[in-house]
Amino acid sequence: MKAMLFDEFGGPEVLRYGDVPDPVPGPGEVLVKLKASALNHVDIDVRDGVSRFDFKMPHILGIEGAGVVAGMGVGVEGLSIGDPVAVSYVRTCDNCEWCNRGQNNLCENRRLFGEHIPGTYAQYMVAPASHCLPIPEGVSFAEAAASLVAFGTAWHGLVARGQLVVGDVVLIHSVGSGVASAALQICKAAGATVIGTASTDEKLERATADGADFTINYNSTNVNEAVMEFTGGKGVDLVFDVVGGEAFTNSMFVMRPYGRLISIGAHAGEVVPFDIIEFFRRHISYISSHTQTRDELSHVLDLIARGTLSPRIHSTFPLSEAADAHRLMSSRLAYGKIILEIPE
Ligand SMILES: [Zn+2]
Question: For residue 294, how far is its CA from the centre of ligand 1 (angstroms)?
């Protein structure tokens, strides 16, 4: 099969469109003929060699993918050749304490496609049948692939972990990012009021078009002062933080009593000072969240089919031009997902 590979760490130029043997499904596994793959920033980190994941070279990138069932190992039930499926990107053992509890995002033996094991920048991949989620009618392969990380992560953080309810006032940092813009849509669907921050007015305009009630350019405006002014001095119920660093530290001071901060990322600063006095006097909760369960992914796909949620796709490249897609992703000019179309 054709795949986009790399043999050594480096810039986009290390990506090589080449041939590798077709993967073969083992017992309980499905061969998926991929139609669409979606880029994530971590793809760049893996290619650059800064992610520190352990994998074999040549490596195939790609966390998110969608396609059709093209083959099955023994013991697979409930799927047929040709079924459209999205592949859950957290490969789990389905046999540990957490998998048995249905909290497969916490699997003790999990590995991520494209990070630890070959991913979706390829014509075919093999995945356990349990990981192949039927794509509902009306959802394209590109939309399905584009939804897994952003909507899955945002859903688990806001709904399962953050207990988002109607009427919540939510502050979303860096609302232009994939996960944060998905969080914005989920908050609006849930009847929350959303304050979004971003680095450019253009990103803020997009957020407003997606339903943000109030937006703040953090390069030109003091975020905390603007939040307190907008909320009449009350502060917010929920903070959705994909950033870490100062955004995380400063959020302490704009939460109401019983405020919840959901932390799902920290690329702007992983180790920060923390005001313990403010934290305990006002009954604030800091909540961590990572990936999502497969049930949650199926739920998100259903909401996309119903039109409640809508993945934003910025542009599409053929798989053979993945290097150009990487350059676009590194430029941070894309608002929405970058898709790779997989050839027949
Ligand atoms: Zn497990």
Answer: 12
pLDDT digits 0-9 by tens, 239-255: 999 999 999 999 999 99
What's the mean per-residue pLDDT of the chain? 95
Confidence at residue 334, expressed as pLDDT on a 0 to 100 scale = 80
How remote is the CA of residue 302 from the centroid of ligand 1, in Å? Answer: 25
CA–CA distance, 11 with 44 (Å, rounded to integer): 8
- List pLDDT tens digits, range 114-139: 999 999 999 999 999 999 999 999 99
Instruction: Reduce the DSSP state of residue 62 to 3 states and report it.
Output: coil
Give 128 Cα–ligand 1 centroid separation in angstroms: 13
pLDDT class for 306, splitting at 50, 70, 90? very high
Q: How far is the CA of 100 from the centre of ligand 1 (A)?
A: 7
Nearest to 17 by CA among 261, 224, 319, 298: 319
21-59 pLDDT per residue, tens: 999 999 999 999 999 999 998 999 999 998 888 899 999
- Give pLDDT, residue 7: 97
Cβ atoms of 37 and 339 within 8 Å: the answer is yes
Please tell me the distance between residue 105's alpha carbon and the centre of ligand 1 in angstroms.
8
**Is the predicted pLDDT of residue 266 greater than 90, yes or no?**
no
How remote is the CA of residue 96 from the centroid of ligand 1, in Å? 4
Q: Show the domains of the chain with their CATH numbers.
A: 2-149+292-341 (3.90.180.10), 163-288 (3.40.50.720)
pLDDT of residue 278: 87
Tell me the DSSP string of 9-40.
--SGGG-EEEE-PPP---TTEEEEEEEEEE--
Q: In what order do the strands lie in the sheet with 2-6?
A: 16-19, 2-6, 59-60
Q: The tokens of 13 are what?
A: 């130029």
Ligand 1 midpoint to CA 50 (Å): 26
Ligand 1 centroid, distance to 43 Cα (angstroms): 24
Residues with CB under 5 A from ligand 1 (ion): 92-93, 96, 99, 107
